[in-house]
Amino acid sequence: MTFYEELQLSSTGSKALIKNTTDPKEKRRHILIYNFKVYLVMAFCVAVVSLYSHFTGNNNSVVGVTVLLAVLVLRQADFGIKTTHALLVLRQADFGIRTSHGLICIAGIFTLLITGPRLANTLPAPASLLVNFISILLLMILGCHNVIMYNQSTFVLGYLLLYGYDVTGRAYLLRVLGLLVSMMVCMLVFYKNQKKRPYRRSFPDLFREFNLKSARSQWYLSLTWIVCSAMFIMQLLSLPRAMWAGIACMSVCLPFPEDSKDRTWKRGVFNILGCGIFLVL
Question: By the 8 A CB rule, do 128 and 118 touch?
């Protein structure tokens, strides 16, 4: 495996490669490459967020975070790397449809990111709940048809961050401009890297296959309702930054029930422990 190929591995893939390597010299090489990748990604993240903050204002640094997450997820197609120990597969965002139709999904996702958070922040709590519910459900349908890609952790997180750090006036216009530029970048990156992907479905199939009896659609609705209702309760209690409640709920609402149970228990315990330490200190 070349240096560049190792840089393309996910964190899980790199750790598996390190764990399965028995030769001490090769293991040290893999560890060094993994650490280099971590610092490289960190530098890239800081650069992107700083760039967006410079051109759109500090209040819009969240736009840089949103586009950063999207680009990191959309930048590659799946491919396998055969090693002496295993076949390591790199997986990124796959909308489950024809690649050119995936561009429509990206346009729809960014349209929701531009309009949904701003509209929800201008309305009273019940109407805001409705806007958030419709927007997040559409994000799920557009971006998470292939549930094993876990795209909801990218696009819904971006929505919640934009909702929680809302802006108005000129700052909002700059936010819209920043998101439109981000949309074009994501489209170019996605199409360039995934244009040869085989497909069986098209854009209309995303809505045609929405069925209340399917496990996927039930997960869409469950995650959407849990996230939106948590933020709605925060609004009713007049607590600040309601989006953090939504992010916390989203992080444990996984498409596979067994994974959700395990993560919910662990995070619940450590959240209580963390709150206790905070109160003591």
Answer: no
Taking the C-alpha atoms of residue 104 and residue 107, their distance in angstroms, rounded to an integer, is: 5
Tokens 């496990």 sit on residue: 215
CA dihedral 252, 275, 236, 165 (to 10 degrees): -70
149-167, pLDDT tens digit by residue? 666 678 899 999 999 999 9
Residues 6+ apart with CB under 8 A from 122: none
Please, are residues 231 and 242 in contact by the beta-carbon 8 Å criterion?
A: yes
Structure tokens at 193: 């890297």
Q: How many other CB atoms sit within 10 Å of the CB of residue 242?
A: 22
- Quick check: 110 and 182 in contact, CB under 8 A? yes
Residue 24 has pLDDT above 60, yes or no: yes
Give the separation between CA 59 and CA 37, rounded to whole angstroms: 29
Whether the per-residue pLDDT at 88 is higher than 60: the answer is no
Distance CA 275, CA 270 (A): 8
Tell me, what DSSP letter sits at residue 267?
H
DSSP state of 102: H
SS3 (DSSP) at 79: strand
| pLDDT tens per residue across span 99-147 | 888 899 899 999 999 999 999 999 999 999 999 999 999 999 888 776 6
User: Model pTM?
Assistant: 0.80
Question: In the block, which residue shows the tokens 């990748």?
Answer: 37
Separation between Cα atoms, residue 142 and residue 220, nearest integer Å: 11
Per-residue pLDDT reduced to its tens digit, 161-206: 999 999 999 999 999 999 999 899 889 988 887 777 777 788 888 8
Contact between 134 and 227 under an 8 Å Cβ cutoff? The reply is no
